[in-house]
Amino acid sequence: MTAENEREIYHKLEAMKEIRNKTITLERLKRSILNEVRSGDQEGRCLAQYKREMELLQQEKMSHVEELRQIHADINAMETVIKQTEESMGRKLTNASRLHEDYRPLKAEVDMLRRQCLGLDRLPDLHEEEGSPITPDRFPASVRGSGVGGGAGGVGGAGLPTGVGGAGGAAFLPPAPRKPPPPPAFRSALQQDFITVSLRQQPPPMKSCLSCHQQIHRNAPICPLCKAKSRSRNPKKPKKK
Q1: Is 216 helix (H, G, I), strand (E, B) or coil?
Q2: E-assigned strands of 113-154?
Q3: For the C4H2-type domain, which residue ranges apply (predicted)?
Q4: Among 2-16, 90-104, 187-201, whose mean pLDDT is lowest?
Q5: What per-residue confidence (pLDDT) applies to 189?
Q6: Which of 1, 79, 89, 129 is the most exposed place for a label (fewest CB within 10 A)?
Q7: Which value, to the nearest 10 degrees, does the dihedral of the CA atoms of residues 50, 53, 57, 59 take?
């Protein structure tokens, strides 16, 4: 074997060694690539599941937001009905008080005429009638007014002759009593009801949530419906020093 053949064999051995090392590195890289591709495909499948779950969560969120929107709409409608009912109740109580101011002296006069001219008993008060929704304390002054009129009628009736007619008896009647002022307690209760209704009529300052577009309080830092942070569209500018 000549020296030239030895050098050729040596170069082939060196080439085989280099090929072996690079082949091992190549196989290692190939396995790494396959592992990364398999992991990437697995992550892709997981990502698709995560996105699907996110879509379901968004749908559930919107369904709850729609339910909350409907609940808030029902609450607003009920508040409107309550406000209108309170206003109607206040008007009815005011009208009842005004009508009772006219009713009370007229009833006292009628009771006086019945006793003095006809010898009849007084008419029953409003709370004494059968099936009446009026309680004795609804118009406190009516009981006192009827009692005063009844006492005067009883005294006057005893001194009149029996044969005196309606026209003759009317000539001896005292002048009609003046209309007494309304009871202060009833007036105060009505004024308190009107103040309460007027305060309830003023809605709180509201703004729209940028996430779910629901009406929330203007100073709320977090939306109570979607839990998103509420940011002011017109933030305050810092003061210049």
Answers
A1: strand
A2: none
A3: 201-241
A4: 187-201
A5: 56
A6: 1
A7: 120
The residue assigned the tokens 């007036």 is 187
This prediction has a pTM of 0.40
Q: What is the dihedral of CA 109, 114, 120, 126, to 10 degrees?
A: -30
**Residue 158 confidence class, pLDDT cut points 50, 70, 90:** very low
How far apart CA 91 and CA 26 sit, in angstroms, is 95
Q: Are 80 and 201 in contact (CB under 8 A)?
A: no
Closest CA to 214 of 55, 58, 78, 64: 64
Greatest mean pLDDT among 132-136, 143-147, 176-180, 216-220 lies in 132-136
Amino acid sitting at position 37: V
User: Letter for the amino acid at 228?
Assistant: A
Q: Are 72 and 208 in contact (CB under 8 A)?
A: no
- Cα separation, 225 vs 180, in Å, equals 56
Separation of alpha carbons 195 and 204, rounded Å: 17
Residue 125 makes CB contacts below 8 A (sequence gap 6+) with: 107, 142, 143, 146
Please, are residues 141 and 180 in contact by the beta-carbon 8 Å criterion?
yes
Rounded distance, CA 99 to CA 107, Å?
12
